[in-house]
Write a structure and sequence with these properties.
152 residues
Length: 152
């Protein structure tokens, strides 16, 4: 007979199990399910979920509302790990450059402010997105992100 796990063991594995279940549920949902956005919102301040959130933002084929929610979470809770932070910035940069999804572009632009001072490519992309030839909402979001990053 297996003994019950010690409380410390249960505490450590429960959040990881919950995260794994949410990611599994997310991946099993239909492409345009609003539940995907809800799952991302449930992962709001979960640092262990950040690699998953980065993958959602980076996936141009993913549901746009899930991508915008993931971008928002990555803006509010940028990764502390430098490598993951760089990947997050680049995923958001890919969202900013997505020609098919203006809503994703807007949210990606807003979310890039914590990453702009770390990566010159991010700062350059925000400057370009703030230009007069851009969609007005993307332009406003990019300019706001530059201001927040102290680069405007």
């Amino acid at each position: 007979m297996n003994p019950e796990p010690a409380p410390d063991d249960a505490t450590r594995t429960a959040p990881a199990d919950h995260l794994a279940r949410l990611i599994e549920e997310f991946r099993a949902l239909p492409a345009d399910s609003d539940r995907k956005r809800e799952i991302i919102a449930e992962l709001d301040d979960n640092a262990a979920a950040q690699p998953f959130l980065v993958s959602v933002v980076a996936d141009a084929g993913e549901y746009d509302l899930a991508r915008t929610e993931a971008a928002t979470v990555l803006r509010l809770w940028p990764p502390a790990d430098p490598g993951l932070r760089h990947r997050a910035g680049r995923a958001l940069l890919a969202g900013l450059n997505d020609p098919e999804e203006d809503l994703v572009r807007q949210y990606a632009a807003m979310a890039l402010d914590p990453y702009a001072s770390d990566d010159p490519a991010v700062a350059e992309a925000l400057i370009a997105a703030g230009g007069p030839e851009e969609d007005p909402l993307v332009q406003a979001c990019a300019r706001s992100a530059l201001e927040e990053a102290g680069l405007a």
